[in-house]
Design goal:
The protein is mostly helical. The protein has helices spanning about 5-10, 25-30, 35-45, 55-65, 80-95. The chain is built from five helices and no strands.
Length: about 100
C-alpha cells in the first residue's frame, strides 16, 4: 500500500481538492487504483471493503457511523459484522477519550 504522500503527489495535477476526497477514495488510491478507477468502483454496487486495511476500515466505519453516513456508500452494506463490531469498539474508545471521529 502506497503512502498518502505518494498518492498526493500523483494527484497534484488533477482538478481535485485533496481535503474533499472521501477516505474510501484515498484508501483505494493507496492500494494502487487510480482516481477514476476508485470513483468507478465506489459508484457501483461492488465489494470494495476487502481492499482496505482492517484498521483503516474500522476507522472509516466508525466515522461513518458517528456521522450517520453509512448509506452514502454502496460498499458499506457488504462489510461483515465483525468489522462493524470493531468500529463500535473504536467509537467507544474515542468517546471515552472525548474525541470525535473525523468527517
Amino acid at each position: 500500500m502506497s503512502q498518502e504522500s505518494d498518492v498526493r503527489e500523483i494527484m497534484k495535477n488533477e482538478p481535485v481538492v485533496w481535503d474533499t476526497l472521501r477516505p474510501d477514495v484515498i484508501l483505494l488510491m493507496r492500494a494502487g487504483i487510480g482516481y477514476q478507477g476508485s470513483i468507478a468502483l465506489l459508484s457501483g454496487d461492488v465489494m470494495t471493503y476487502n481492499l482496505f486495511p482492517p484498521s483503516a476500515l474500522a476507522d472509516m466505519l466508525a466515522s461513518m457511523m458517528f456521522w450517520n453516513r453509512l448509506d452514502e456508500s454502496f460498499w458499506a452494506k457488504e462489510v461483515p459484522e465483525k468489522y462493524y463490531l470493531r468500529a463500535e469498539l473504536r467509537l467507544d474508545s474515542l468517546h471515552s477519550e472525548g474525541v470525535r471521529p473525523g468527517y
